[in-house]
Request: fold
Amino acid sequence: MKIREFAVEQWMNEYEETCRYNLAETCVRSLTTGELLDLSGRREEVLAELDATPLTYGPIPGSLRLRRLVAGLYAAQRPENVLITHGAIGANALVHATLVDPGDHVVAVVPTYQQHYSIPGSYGACVDHLPLREENGWLPDLDELDSLVTSGTKLIAVNNPNNPTGALIDETGLDRIAKIAERAGAWVLCDEVYRGVDQDGNGFTTSIADLYERGISTGSMSKAFSLAGLRLGWIVGPTGLLRAVATHRDYTTISVGRLDDLLACVALENKEAILARSRHITRTNLAILDEWVSSRDDVSYVKPASGTTALLRYHAPIGSYEFCTRLLEHAGVMFTPGAAFDIEHTARIGFADDTQTLRSGLHLVGKYLDQLARE
Reply:
């Protein structure tokens, strides 16, 4: 198997530990273990649980306690519809490995996390891209999707809320996607890793798993729940699919760590407090970003409806890798080049980390853009 280099992850690996202002981070500002314990209101009880936890393998599909809590994030799911994985990245990889065979037809909405087209392509699938367009608010043209899906389509891969744009397909749009898939008997994999931090309402969009019998949702503790260090995610879908996924999983992992499982349970048992914190951060910080973008005539964007990232279009006449590399060198600020998503003259910003870091970083980006304009 040969696979294309993972552009975003290689960029992050190269610079995220050394930059001064990380505006490429995609997680809501991470919680410390102490902050999680404080939010739980059960510090001593949780510490006692940790103290009593044997450091052996945990339940292979994830603990029943955790699977019940994950199922509770959905409208119509049960613990048997949940399989715990090593992050959403592990969840996505397992779904593709389970469903995609050489010669299969896959439709991937792009831009998206690169797994959703590079992995099926590496398996020998025929992958058609459905491009999101800025003039459409980075939302998919569902008539175009309908024209791409044939009777032989095996899988439609969607990312909602979208990375990198923050666009959000509403329930009506998801329902139309489900009907298009149903016509072909296709599966829909919806990477919902940013679910929970919509800019309006309670933060939660309807999940494809609750709308379509062949709908598969992947998620994790990393983004909205601020616990990327747990490396814990999940697949939610039909029980038959999960049995097939488990066969592939046996060859790669046995179980997630017992401590990770336990701390994820603590977090989900206190999801209201954690998500309230996350929505406060994302809504406060997006307002700051929006004010900054509005103040400049050399940057534009479609304001995100959800998630933790936005795709900025800059007007300087240089490619995005050069733009972002020079920004790091001159200002110590890290963006992600839009070319990593195959969209030139853009850069992805993560706006959900520390608010002061965002303010300071945007100020320096403004000075950098001013300098570019003088060159």
About this structure: The chain has a mean pLDDT of 97. The two ends are 45 Å apart (CA to CA). The first strand starts at residue 21 and ends at 22. Residues 258 and 329 are 41 Å apart (CA to CA).
